[in-house]
# Entry
Amino acid sequence: MSNFIGYRCSLCNAEYLPGQVTYTCPKDGGNLDVALDYDSLRHKYQPEDVTSRREESLWRYLPLLPVPDPGGEGTSIRAAGWTPVYTLERLAAPLGLRHVWLKDESRNPTASFKDRASAVVVARAREIGADVVVTASTGNAGAALAGMAAALGQKAVIFAPKSAPPAKVAQLLVYGAKVILVDGSYDDAFDLTVKAAAEFGWYCRNTGYNPFTAEGKKTAAFEIWEWWRDEHRQWHEDGSLLDSHPPLTVFVSVGDGNIISGIHKGFKDLLALGWISRMPRLVGVQAEGSAAIANAFHAGVERITPVSASTIADSISVDLPRDGVRAVRAARETGGAYVTVSDAEILKAIAALGPLGIFAEPAGAASWAGLVKAAGQGLVSEADPIIVLNTGSGLKDVRAAMQAVSAAPIIEPTLEAVKKIL
Ligand SMILES: *Cc1c(COP(=O)(O)O)cnc(C)c1O
Ligand SMILES: [Zn+2]
# Structure
């Protein structure tokens, strides 16, 4: 039934059977790529077998996922993914770009991209009979795990830095997870989680550690593929998949590097299946104050040197990215790039997206800030079709949002007072 045949280490290429390892390569700690039986998949499925499914969630891609159906019908885990795409024409025109869209991941059940990863990890946890799932998180991964686990009645433990935005901490608590705030950074919480999981026998979801997170995140690539097929059909009658000239360019904000590597994996799956004939370009956007992966990319190396991260975009504030090598490759192997943006540019991006009806948290708006930067650097041009991802909701971090706008005036409740300020 399952097309999950094992893992391959992204560093040393060692191969493992599904039951042989759980997290990273025992030899070198490298991130493991999940291997699917492409030959079997190619014979069994056509694109229409997926695109004709009525399931409006990431579970429509079940044949291409390494987990069984987790069930949970009628709960929020069945609402993960299948996020809307909006046009950014009005915003993009002044940049001299004609075809720009935004995929709004804030529309996931817990309001961030992380639901994709957590939904699939929770399905894996159920398959292997894990009682408790644990994760380190700056907030969103934890909220997503807490929410998806709650949907299936599973137990979740979340370690977050005590500096996590209050809305995210509230979300964790309301979903009923065991929440432990760590007096330290996300990186401290990460290391502690790995130790706690080993000590107590918990299943660890940590980003860039558990190989199933990228498998969940790759579903965004599948959705982009499906959306693009439809969009492209309007451009060219033949509907040939991601074959337009120039190729589609995807902008995504990068912290640990697991979203960009997951999206890369999704497109690699589609390429291996022959469902696309051309790889889209992936552009990673990092905060200037948390740019370990961009630094490596620009130095032309894969080796990641940790930084001392500091940025308003808490979701991408990472000292040592845990999926850095694959994240560098995602841009390099697709003809993409990395750009970095300042906190001021991120705040400007929040204020720019808002009037289009899009409320992004700082890490979510960073991708738009990155496109503005890339346009200025000539990395994209007028005819390029471009899609940027808003990875998280502005409601997650209202304090940051208020820095992006000017405060509302407070007046006496009289018409005179209204007239005075208009
Ligand atoms: C986690 C996260 C990211 C970055 O994902 P990585 O896999 O850490 O690179 C970007 N935006 C938001 C809102 C996130 O929660
Ligand atoms: Zn290895």
Summary: The first strand starts at residue 4 and ends at 9. Confidence is low (pLDDT under 50) at residues 237-242. Residues 112-114, 140, 207, 253-259, 315-316, 361, 363-364, 391-392 surround pyridoxal-5'-phosphate (ligand 1) (CB under 6 Å).
